[in-house]
Amino acid sequence: MRIKLKFFATIRELVGSSGEAMDIQEDATVSTLLDKVKKDYDALKTMERILVAVNGEYVDPEALLREGDVVALFPPVSGG
Fold it and tell me: Are 70 and 54 spatial neighbours (Cβ–Cβ below 8 Å)?
């Protein structure tokens, strides 16, 4: 199945792109996707935590992905 990835903030800088279309297996979860993204982009391998929103809503790592989903990846946010 095909999904659309969007990269934000530091992730966009590390990847060198604002997004891409990606083909993944039919039963993929957010966790599966993150593993694939980290394999594809060496610069992200050391990121321990990446926030993920699917179709505009934050999801947990075990959420299933569906054909056509728009998946946004954000670095962890901190501040005060």
Answer: yes
